[in-house]
Amino acid sequence: MNGSTNGSTSGSTKVMGALTVGGLVVVTAYSVALGSNGWLWFGWVVLGLLTLAMVVTRP
After folding, report:
1. What distance in Å separates the CA atoms of residue 44 and residue 40, rounded to the nearest whole number?
2. Residues 28-41: b if buried by 16+ CB within 10 A, e if exposed
3. pLDDT 10s digit of each residue in the chain, 59 long?
């Protein structure tokens, strides 16, 4: 049972990492195509910090 908990935590951390990288690609593409938007970059930074917190607090 303990192994399944670790596996799901690791899986959710990987998903958050993928979302963070995907978000960076989307925000960068938006900025190139339509101009920079501070709120998008702010949202991406918050997502990155949440992902970092998940990695650091992982058991």
Report:
1. 6
2. eeeeeeeeeeeeee
3. 444 455 555 788 899 899 999 999 999 999 999 998 899 999 999 999 999 998 898 87
Beta-carbon contacts of residue 20 (< 8 Å; ≥ 6 apart): 44, 47, 48, 51
Residues recorded for the chain = 59
CB of 20 closer than 8 Å to CB of 41: no
The pTM of this model reads 0.73
Residue type, 27: V
Between the CA of residue 5 and those of 24, 37, 38, 44, 50, what are the distances in Å? 29, 38, 37, 28, 20
